[in-house]
Design a protein that fits this description.
The structure holds two protein chains of two kinds. By secondary structure, chain A is an all-beta fold. Chain A has no helices and eleven strands. Helix content of chain B is 0%, strand content 48%. Classes of the chains: A mainly beta, B mainly beta.
Chain lengths: 117, 112
């Protein structure tokens, strides 16, 4: 069974940083792209970033580009999303999700990031 | 980026009645490999999104057959033949043809 478990969310002050983690199990981790998708309170789903299975290719949404870094450790079956210069607009539940052929069949339960003073 | 536009954004439906959600993309979703990577997700209150349909019309395992997807090119539709109480939630279309993936705004289905 595919499992994706996010952690690292919490309350962060404006201008601060945090690192989210996504621990995966139940599949050959290094063979799959992994995405981060976020959802602000009461709002829709927004794609944030993705990383190829070998970590050699990454992509970011314009909203986080230049202040975020996605990475992975295939030995630990874990993907990370580091975000800097956080603002209230970054307040959201962050989901990690597994890609498969132009789709996202598997999602984690999400971790809440709140940016507030 | 490909813009996905859903309608309606709010969908009150009587139990047992059909429901239909439209999703339009700003450009064709036909990939160079010939596939069309249009997906539908359901998000029940307080839950993570759940994929219902991929590649326009293929239902995921465990998804009731009252859900169906159709369409081509830039126009797509999710239909529920007879709405049940467990169908309450928000439905999103998402294109996976072009990086970056993009979602529609979501359609909130509620029971009248």
């Amino acid at each position: 069974e595919v499992q994706l478990v996010e952690s690292g969310g919490g309350l962060v002050q404006p201008g601060g940083s945090l690192r989210l983690s996504c621990a995966a199990s139940g599949f050959t981790f290094s063979s799959y792209w992994i995405h981060w998708v976020r959802q602000a309170p009461g709002k829709g789903l927004v794609w944030v970033s993705r990383i190829r299975g070998d970590g050699g290719s990454t992509l970011y949404a314009d909203s986080v580009k230049g202040r975020s870094t996605i990475s992975r450790d295939n030995a630990k079956n874990t993907v990370y999303l580091e975000m800097n210069s956080l603002t209230a607009d970054d307040t959201a539940v962050y989901y990690c999700a597994r890609d498969f052929m132009g789709s996202i069949p598997d999602w984690g339960q999400g971790t809440l990031v709140t940016v507030s003073s | 980026d490909v813009v996905m536009t859903q309608s309606p954004l709010s969908l009150p439906v009587t139990l047992g009645q059909p429901a239909s959600i439209s999703c339009r993309s700003s450009q064709s979703l036909v990939h160079s490999d010939g596939n069309t990577y249009l997906n539908w997700f359901q998000q029940r209150p307080g839950q993570s999104p759940r994929r219902l349909i991929y590649k326009v019309s293929i239902r995921d395992s465990g998804v009731p057959d009252r859900f169906s997807g159709s369409g081509s090119g830039t126009d797509f539709t999710l239909k529920i033949s007879r709405v049940e109480a467990e169908d309450v939630g928000v439905y999103y279309c998402m294109q996976g043809t072009q990086w970056a993936y993009t979602f529609g705004q979501g359609t909130k289905l509620e029971i009248k």
